[in-house]
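TEACHING EXERCISE
Course module: macromolecular assemblies
Task: Read the component lines below, then compare them to the predicted structure of the full complex.
Student: A.B.
Group: 4
Components provided:
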Amino acid sequence: MATTQVEPVPDSYLTDPRGLRSWLVTRDHKRIGLMFLVLISASLALGAVFALLIRTELTLPGGQVVSTGAAYNRLFTLHGAVMIFLFVIPAIPSSFGNFVLPIMLGAKDVAFPRLNLASLYLYVVGMVFFLLVLLLGGIDTGWTFYPPYSTSTATPVVLAVVGAFILGFSSIFTGINFLVTIHTMRPPGMGWFRMPLFLWSLYGTAVIQVLATPVLAITLLLLAVERVLGIGIFDDKLGGDPILFQHFFWFYSHPAVYIMILPAMGIISEVISVFSRKHIFGYDFIAYSSIAIALLGFLVWGHHMFVSGQSPLVAMIFSALTFTVAIPSAIKVFNWLATMYKGSIELTPAMCFALNFIFLFGIGGLTGLFLGALATDLHVHDTAFVVAHFHYTMAGGVLMAFLAGLFYWWPKITGRMYRVGWGQLAALVVLIGFNLTYFPQFIIGARGMPRRFFDYTQLVQPDPDFPMLKPHPEFVYYQIISTVGGFLFVGGLVLVAINLIGSCFGGRKAPANPWGAATLEWQCDSPPPRENFASAPEAGDCYDYDDLEYDEQAQEYVKLP
Amino acid sequence: MIDLDGLYSLAELPLLAQTGGSFWLPDAATKDPAMDPVFYLILAVCALFFFLVVGLMGLFVVRYARRPGVKPQKTTTHHTLLEIVWSVIPLIIVGVIFYQGFAAYMEMQNAPSGCYEIRVTGRQWQWVFTYPNGYSDDNLHVPVDLPVKLTMTSTDVIHSLWIPALRVKMDLVPGRYTSVWFRADKEGTYRLLCTEYCGDEHSNMLAAVVVHSAEDFQEWLKGAADYLTTLPPAEAGKILYQRRGCFQCHSTDGTAGTGPSLLGIYGRTHTLADGGTVVVDDNYIRQSILEPQAKILAGYQPVMSTYQGLVTDDEITTLIEFIKTLK
Amino acid sequence: MTQSQEPPPAPRDGGNHDAAPLAHHFDSLKQQYDSAKLGMWVFLITEVLFFSGLFCWYAVFRANHPDVFVDGHHFLETPLGAFNTAVLIFSSLTMALAVRSAQLGRRAPLIGLLSVTLLCGLVFLGVKTAEYRQKWHHRLVPGQARIEYFFSAKRTDGVSAPPAKEFLPEGEGQAQYRQYVRQHLAHAGEEILTEEQLQGRIANLRSFMGIYFTLTGLHALHVIIGMGVIFWILVGAIRGRFGPRRFTAVDLVGLYWHLVDLIWIYLFPLLYLIH
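Instructor-supplied answer key:
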């Protein structure tokens, strides 16, 4: 047995059983979560390389890294596709979700461990498809695959589409697993409204994964069928309808942004409460807002299509619904602030990244108002303004929460403590770099810089044919600032990587409960034994910190008798 | 100093203030664009909430920083009234923003009667503006103070027309028509761009919007359309070759591009992709412009989209005469 | 690696057949059964949504081009479609009875009913194959030129692939094909007068066959998967793996098979019965 009390150094899930094969065929949610974490981080690194190439390219007008639009178009497509499909969608549910969800429930595993492993392998297969696309020279459709461009370009679109299709199934399997696990495997004493908020957010996420992803799957399949067999589905020349694709695509892809952001909000709820040592404020409202976001998220896809020739009535309805989604997000932010009020706030790296989240996601969410309002969307749609907006929500939101979660659960996952000071420094560097990168893009976007734009030479220099045409030389300033920021931002991420990976080699051994959190995962050892708990623990109030006291000697929090 | 392709050195870059418009928005070609007040309203709301949230966050981090031996103070864990207040207030604010955005949008959508109508066709990677008299140009010329309605479509992939100075944007979708209208109040020249990603030369799919006085506009239209009758056909054809963007794929110096070079092509016999042959004569050129997919020369892809409706018979004649001169 | 953790009352495969083995991470058999059932229902929801995308496409296309469907359905064999519908409905009945037999622990009827269900699936696929063969013969399959190309010597001879939209045969075959379409429509009581009309009809046919093959092809794929899992539980039934307290797999496969049938019950009128 794994967890006998007498052994001085109990075997953890990392070493029990040993051997590569035991990892490859494991059904342990912790191992699957950890492998996801590694693969997802590798994808993030790949996406970041493309990001830096794009940033370097755009620093000055004309070709810097690549010399043709065709090459640049491949760069931004690969950056988008890798970041969306391989990083942000699975980032939190597949890694931390898998690792933490069963332990938070006091369970031994998710409901369907085999399905969970299948989800991991589907992710790997999807990744291989994307790498094949990369080896074949990349695709140039943009991650949105809009036809008729995607049905007419000569790049290997089918391969990429099949890759995304497979990744969709990976996501669906995770969703089914979480949904069922939360429904049937809650421990005695944990009613729905006593669950940690992270689980509520994963529940909302799972609902979206299950309801939206199949629509993406069929859309991508139809696109592939159209390209291979020439069936007229989306291409007007074959009798199809290009706007239908946009409806299908955004019916998935808008809810998908909530697949990305909901678990991120869940992490922030946990981290803010723990490091303020305050019971989370407005638990019910935060829980309900997760579900509200999940459901309302299905009704707003049309706001991506305000300029595609939609009727004004439809545009009005989608605009109005879009604004209603803003409210649950706002509720969460206010509740987090109320949680911090009169707390005892400790700026651990996890907390620093959570505060970064509030800062950056705040800007991202608020600038969404420009895009939800019809008149202003007409102006800023498909410009650098939009690029800035969704990077503030996706990178400023999901990535910051991912990093917060990484610093928060790292001791639990690896059993090692990292250097706190370096983590705080990284958070600061990331915050500064991030704002330098993306804030200028709001300005140049509103002033006339489109997105997916290879060479802006003609926008910044006078036009000999039209001497009266005012050029925008200021774009160059902003682009330079943006590139410098981009390198700083990635530098911050490298600091995080060095700090965390370094901790595996000689970091202090992590205690069971280094942060004094009250959720169940902190009641088992760090790292947890194979089956998490010898017997199911008793679920109490997961935000009650009153009876947890810091023990200087053991450097961990212990329960007061 | 970094030399920007001979444009500017970094030190010479004009200061931000000198480049026109406000900090956030470019120069407007209309006196009071309906969008701008909405933009600034939202900006104000954003700034207010951002400073409120981040300000409180900063305050709490400093004021309630962890101190040894100091316990967090007990506060209530829920407060329904407070939750309702901070749900309803943002709801009212976004309601106002929605209404303002919608009202301005309707103003920008509903074209008044009596618009001057121009047809716009987007193709990879070029704009074609066709005026009521049948003349087509690759830049948009409009009269000042007169409402102009653009009726738009695309012959290949989706494009999007954006004129930042007029705050208008609308997609051009193949197989359907979309429209947009505006009234320029200030004479001048403004930028027009494609904002829907459309392929390799997407960033070069640009045009100028020239706002003329009413008299100048009529004069320009007459003069611009006249070159077909005043110039010798081959020279008119050369202008057309430039304006319709033929040069993007068909060179005149013998280098093969996306399509075959036009140098010396006339009168020769060429092999087709399906194995047949064709003599490049007037009829073949005419067919290749109007039905480009019909007979593809060997070694080229069937990627050209049709010019049906974008060139008149007279214009085709001038193009043929121009091609004849390329020997 | 997890077997050693199983609680004692849970038998392994081949042991006591009264109860299902309890997986290590569940507390009780009820929890395990509830989880499996809920998981299957959620999976079925994803399947429904998957097909609802197809039906959406169908609805949009039909609203925009009603003539495509009127023209196209003349080329489908309604009696064969109706026969297939009956076969699938019957197979749903046998599947439901099979689940009942499993719950009651009657092994022989279970094996018999599962075999009949499997046979119905085979009949369905056989009829479908006959229909597809006929379409292939008349060159109505989307992308047919491309598919032929990939299985011909042309590919190795370095001839470039025909464009995806290639539909008509080349040369001689074209006239024959036109004649076929003309006759078939005349047979259905439609007069084709001009060449232009005929061109339009051929384009319509192309679109319709695209929809027909995508919808029925994806459905057939689901039938094949369904038959695969029925075969799997049939083997289990023959080995005596199911009993009154151990029938989850049969139950879930039954649910899946009903869904596959249900989708066909929608597809049949939407494609074959158009007026």
